[in-house]
């Protein structure tokens, strides 16, 4: 009987065991909770528990499961009845049971909804011991976030029942076919089955739960076993089970919107592992991206390694069917029409092919793809368990492009405008996103100066990146025209595209494909400025010459004559306060020179070209034939003079100049002139500068002259001279229609500057008369209390230093460890220095040179002198007052002694005298002043020398001395 139970469990699930096994207390196999908000104006939600019961071992208990208690996470509960009729699946071995209610939450917040059911079904291998797994309760929960601005929202629903079969030694995969009607992003992660705690809404992970890999030895290909879930697709795979029986595990589906986690649904599911020779079928997925309105007819093919027939099924929101086969609620449905799987659910001779058929429409546009879970089941011989495989068909539906874009440009007395037109947009719609209605908008983008082809990138919506398009307007989707009047300039090619923004949030909204571009240019009905050049630089009598061309697209007789040019001026490179400074009448006679004007200022407005740049525009007038009044036709694009600035630098001058013109001065050669004689010249051409596209151009003059046709003026710039400059810019119109004007040359004003000079003097080479201690006799430097170090140096030269020196600075440090500090300075041309009144010759020196501008050279070489210490003591003296040998002092003379610590002991070791002094001169008395008697005394002299090394240790002398007084024999 034990054997019958062990091997009969798997067969029981698949129809091999005819005798039923009945239990009154065990029945739950799997389940999850989902929610759906019913109104944007209230917090009422439809809450659904979908539970899967074991109809073989727990049919009786399943029949009794008429209601369960829902915990809503707001401290309220409700007993909810089961909906009838019950739907049976898997050959009536299992049933799907629906418990549904409506609950209104008290306010925004985070709520965890949960249900616990007694009990699970028996025999679950990884909830040991399997024989008593029916004593464990079943617990699932779902967490939802209700913010104040979320609007309508539904948790994802799982359309594939959580009941499948696996084979020992073979990789098993399951896909829940989760579908989110709101288009929110879904993510998946593994969890663990839980059990409810008695008499509460709380739970815990089942302590006895074992990860499925415990029941795996190797993977299908011989590698390490694994149990994983794909975080994006939800594909859960176990590679590979090694034991037959039923297993439970859990996973969580996360719901994300705009980067915020707004919900989590936990599914607890069960599979059965069998040991049979059958191999699972194979099925391939695909990814599609189509414009709304496309008819999808995608073939789906499945094969079976055993040559058996296959059944192809599909699960997903577009199919409009829940896991129990009932229709999706209207709020969860994909807008009509629904997809279908032709030849789906029918045994097919393999390779079997079904066709996913979907007539898409504009209401189905959204950012997230529709993931259709494809399931292939084999049809094995009777008595063999059916195995399955899964794949994903990902379908992204994007909004189509706006079609038939055309346009025209105008530039008349009323102003400049470009009007674009297009066919009525085919995918405009109005939706209620829960916070009010939203409609499709058409966004108009423009770029300047290019009509190059836009590369087509499949399934890439929105404005093409990196091509310079900027938004210039938005209109309702019902509009078919737009007029652009924003900062339009003549001579510029404008390219336009349109992108539709679909209604809804970022999930269900999104952008359409970009339209084809239309390129337009304003007609030339106004003059074209070609020159603004500075003729004279002066604070009150400056002069600037203007030249322009007649309106290119206007001919005599087009409008009433006579015509008039009005010259207008504003101060500054970007000045806008234009005032009329002169007029020129014309009949557009090409034989008459009437397109030149010299601005020399007015009696009330001097032209200060020294301090200012000036900007000009030419307004063109025609004579109205009716009123005979002059009427403005338009204004030429303004152009400024060239503004040059000069700044001093080290033995150089930095030039920078700017322009603000309708023609481009970029990527051209500009000419630099220099005068060494002042602002009135003469000027020599010194450099041709190739400038790049920046709008501000620079050049550094170091004194070189690279243009020698007018004489070579190359020589070093000096800090005591002023240099003056003028720059000629060269530019051209980028508009091909204006290319006839060729290179446009304009002169800047004159600007002068005096360079600085931060060049250091050349360094010096330093020498020092130092002592040779080996050559000194004991009497050398005897009785000296003051010493002198003699320094001498030599000036060096070089190409990168200044040979002109005004003074020298001498730096001194007493010890070799010191950083020398400034001692004194001497004026050039002196190159020697005696450092006198020193108590020791020990010390280090370096010297720097200083020029007239105060720049100091790098330090010279460092030189040092060291003392030659000498110290010796006698062994007898006679302190008897006869003036001979009356004191105990160093023999001959001591040299470089800084201090002596002298201690005297009598023959018994008693200290009788101690002193620290710079000069040792002991008179034979004790420390208290009393005369010491004649006799032998011992001493220790610790001598510290005034040498170069601060850390030189003291020298210790130990010896004896005989004191001889009158009447005492010297023997």
TrEMBL record:
Pfam families: CHU_C. Gene3D superfamilies: Immunoglobulins. This is Gliding motility-associated C-terminal domain-containing protein.
């Amino acid at each position: 009987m034990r054997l019958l139970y062990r091997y009969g469990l798997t067969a029981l699930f698949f129809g091999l065991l005819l005798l039923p096994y009945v239990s009154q207390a065990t029945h739950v196999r799997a389940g999850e909770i989902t929610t759906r908000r019913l109104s944007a104006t209230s917090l009422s939600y439809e809450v659904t528990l979908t539970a899967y019961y074991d109809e073989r071992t727990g049919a009786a208990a399943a029949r009794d499961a008429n209601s369960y208690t829902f915990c809503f996470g707001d401290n309220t509960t409700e007993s909810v009845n089961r909906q009838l009729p019950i739907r049976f699946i898997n050959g009536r071995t299992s049933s799907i049971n629906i418990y549904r209610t409506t609950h209104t939450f008290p306010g925004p917040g985070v709520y965890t909804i949960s249900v616990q059911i007694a009990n699970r079904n028996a025999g679950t291998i990884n909830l040991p011991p399997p024989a008593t797994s029916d004593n464990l309760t079943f617990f699932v929960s779902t967490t939802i976030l209700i913010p104040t601005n979320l609007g309508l929202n539904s948790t994802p629903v799982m359309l594939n029942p959580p009941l499948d079969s696996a084979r020992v030694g073979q990789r098993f995969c399951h896909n829940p076919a989760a579908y989110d009607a709101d288009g929110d992003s879904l993510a998946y992660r593994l969890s663990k089955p839980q059990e409810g705690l008695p008499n509460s809404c709380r739970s815990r992970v089942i302590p006895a739960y074992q990860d499925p890999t415990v029941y795996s030895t190797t993977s299908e290909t011989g590698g390490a076993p694994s149990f994983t879930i794909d975080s994006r697709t939800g594909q859960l795979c176990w590679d590979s089970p090694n034991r037959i029986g039923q297993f439970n595990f859990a996973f969580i589906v996360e719901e994300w919107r705009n980067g915020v986690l707004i919900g989590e649904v936990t599914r607890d599911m069960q599979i059965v592992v069998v040991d049979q020779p059958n191999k699972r079928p194979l099925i391939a997925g695909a990814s599609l991206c189509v414009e709304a309105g496309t008819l999808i007819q995608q073939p789906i093919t499945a094969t079976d390694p055993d040559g058996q027939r296959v059944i192809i099924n599909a699960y997903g929101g577009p199919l409009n069917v829940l896991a129990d086969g009932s229709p999706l609620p209207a709020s969860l449905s994909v807008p009509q029409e629904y997809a279908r799987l032709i030849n789906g659910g029918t045994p097919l001779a393999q390779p079997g092919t079904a066709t996913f058929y979907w007539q898409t429409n504009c209401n189905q546009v959204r950012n997230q793809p529709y993931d259709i879970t494809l399931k292939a089941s084999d049809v094995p011989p009777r008595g063999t368990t059916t195995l399955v495989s899964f794949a994903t068909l990902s379908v992204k539906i994007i909004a189509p492009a706006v079609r038939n874009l055309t346009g025209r440009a105008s530039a008349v007395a009323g102003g400049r405008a470009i009007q674009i037109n297009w066919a009525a947009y085919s995918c405009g719609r109005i939706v209620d996103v829960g916070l009010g209605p939203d409609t499709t908008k058409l966004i108009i983008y423009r770029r300047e100066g290019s009509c190059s082809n836009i590369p087509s990138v499949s399934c890439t919506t929105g404005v093409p990146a990196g091509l310079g398009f900027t938004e210039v307007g938005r209109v309702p989707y019902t509009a078919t025209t737009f007029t652009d009047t924003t900062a339009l300039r003549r001579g510029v090619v404008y390219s336009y595209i349109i992108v539709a923004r679909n209604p809804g949030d970022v999930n269900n909204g999104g952008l359409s494909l970009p339209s084809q571009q239309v390129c337009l240019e304003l007609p030339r009905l106004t003059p074209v400025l070609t020159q603004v050049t500075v003729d004279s630089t002066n604070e009150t009598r400056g002069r600037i010459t203007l030249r322009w061309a007649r309106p290119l697209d206007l001919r005599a007789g087009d409008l009433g004559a006579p015509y008039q040019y009005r010259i207008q001026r504003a101060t500054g490179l970007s000045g806008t306060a234009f005032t009329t400074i002169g007029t020129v009448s014309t009949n557009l006679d090409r034989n008459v020179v009437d397109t030149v004007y010299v601005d020399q200022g007015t009696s009330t407005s001097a032209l200060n070209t020294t301090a200012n740049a000036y900007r000009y525009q030419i307004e063109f007038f025609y004579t109205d034939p009716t009123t005979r009044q002059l009427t403005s036709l338009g204004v030429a694009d303004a152009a400024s003079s060239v503004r040059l600035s000069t700044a001093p630098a080290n033995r150089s001058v930095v030039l920078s100049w700017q322009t603000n013109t309708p023609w481009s001065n970029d990527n051209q050669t500009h000419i630099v002139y220099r005068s060494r004689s002042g602002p009135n010249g003469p000027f020599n051409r010194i450099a041709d500068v190739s400038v790049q596209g920046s709008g501000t151009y620079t050049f550094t003059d170091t004194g070189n002259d690279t243009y020698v046709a007018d004489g070579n003026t190359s020589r070093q710039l000096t800090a005591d001279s002023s240099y003056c400059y003028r720059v000629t810019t060269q530019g051209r119109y980028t508009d091909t229609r204006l290319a006839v004007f060729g290179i446009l040359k304009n002169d800047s004003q004159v600007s002068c500057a005096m360079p600085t000079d931060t060049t250091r003097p050349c360094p010096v080479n330093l020498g020092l008369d130092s002592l040779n201690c080996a050559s000194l006799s004991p009497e050398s430097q005897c009785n000296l209390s003051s010493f002198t170090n003699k320094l001498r140096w030599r000036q060096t030269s070089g190409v990168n230093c200044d040979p002109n020196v005004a003074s020298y600075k001498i730096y001194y440090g007493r010890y070799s460890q010191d950083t020398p500090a400034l001692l004194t300075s001497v004026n050039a041309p002196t190159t020697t220095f005696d450092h006198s009144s020193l108590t020791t010759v020990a010390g280090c020196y370096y010297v720097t040179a200083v020029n007239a501008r105060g720049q100091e050279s790098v330090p010279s070489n460092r030189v040092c002198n060291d003392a030659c210490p000498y110290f010796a003591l006698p062994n007898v003296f006679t302190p008897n007052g006869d003036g001979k040998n009356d004191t105990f002092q160093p023999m001959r003379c001591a040299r470089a002694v800084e201090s002596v610590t002298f201690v005297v002991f009598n023959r018994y070791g008693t200290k009788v005298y101690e002193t620290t002094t710079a000069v040792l001169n002991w008179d034979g008395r004790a420390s208290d002043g009393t005369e010491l008697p004649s006799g032998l005394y011992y001493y220790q002299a610790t001598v510290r020398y005034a040498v170069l090394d601060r850390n030189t240790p003291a020298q210790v002398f130990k010896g004896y001395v005989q004191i001889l007084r009158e009447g005492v024999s010297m023997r």
